[in-house]
Amino acid sequence: MKPGKLITTEDTADSEAGSRRGFLLRVLGVLSGGALVSSCGYALAGRGAFLPSYIQRIGIPTFVNRTTVFNLETLITEKVRAEFIGRGKYTVTPADTGADALLTGEVLGISVVPVGITENQFASR
Length: 125
Hints:
Helix content: 25-40%
Number of helices: 2
Structural class: alpha/beta
Oligomer: single chain
Strand order of the largest sheet: 3-1-4
Strand content: 5-15%
Mean pLDDT: 75
Low-confidence stretches: 1-13
């Protein structure tokens, strides 16, 4: 907002819509992160509209990697982008500008647990 500009109810409505949109994306980010951490795979549930109809273009910049695993943030970001693209309803961009909504994320930890062990106690899967 420029100095001296009169705040109108339209400006307030835009601000409230932006706040709601930001809240929805934060909730979506937390849920997505929880799904990634709590299972061996992830998927966005359902095929219906899970975001408001005014969101058509989603910016998904590369996630932040807080682990020691090289390139993990790129792999996870690409999988999340592919999931949104696969829905067919959204245009996904790696930029954080020019989008109706922004999805950001951080990879805080990773654990690798073998599901199969040989008789010599080596991981087989």
